[in-house]
């Protein structure tokens, strides 16, 4: 499985904690921002579990085994 590139400016779909992702996200509950390379965590500020891609950034979703080890 390769990496799928998603243009975050054109998507409104959220991502849940535990989902593989790469890019900049913000918590839908408290707007805390993070930069992720592998798996989305629960929000460290409010323990929220839903994330939105940050505006004007590209993000990567889906990884192969080599990305998981990196």
Helix content: under 10%
The main sheet comes to: 4 strands, antiparallel
Terminal-residue CA separation: 15 Å
Uncertain runs: 1-5, 7-12
Q: If helices are DSSP runs of H or I spanning 4 or more residues, what is the number of helices? A: 1
CA radius of gyration is 12 Å
Query: Could you say which structural class the secondary elements and strand pairing correspond to?
Result: mainly beta
E-strand count: 6
* Chain-averaged pLDDT: 76
The proportion of strand residues reads 25-35%
Question: How does this structure look, described?
Answer:
The strands form two sheets. This protein has a four-stranded antiparallel β-sheet, with no helix packed on it. A two-stranded antiparallel sheet has the order 1-6. The longest helix is centred in the C-terminal third of the chain and has 5 residues, at 65-69. The chain has one domain (4-9, 16-69). The two termini are 15 Å apart. The protein is mostly beta strands. The chain contains one helix and six strands, in the order E-E-E-E-E-E-H. Strand 3 (23-27) and strand 4 (33-36) form a beta hairpin.
Give a brief rundown of this model.
The chain has 70 residues and is mainly beta.
SSE layout:
Layout: E1 4-7, E2 15-16, E3 23-27, E4 33-36, E5 50-53, E6 58-61, H1 65-69
Antiparallel strand pairs: 1-6, 2-5, 3-4, 3-5
Summary tags:
70 residues; four-stranded antiparallel sheet; 1 helix; disordered N terminus; two-stranded antiparallel ribbon
């Amino acid at each position: 499985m390769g990496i799928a590139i998603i243009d975050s400016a054109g998507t409104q779909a959220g991502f849940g904690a535990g989902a593989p992702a790469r890019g900049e996200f913000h918590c839908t509950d408290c707007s805390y921002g993070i930069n992720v390379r592998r798996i989305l965590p629960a929000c460290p500020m409010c323990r929220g579990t839903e994330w939105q891609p940050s505006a004007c950034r590209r993000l990567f979703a889906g990884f192969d085994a080599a990305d998981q080890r990196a």
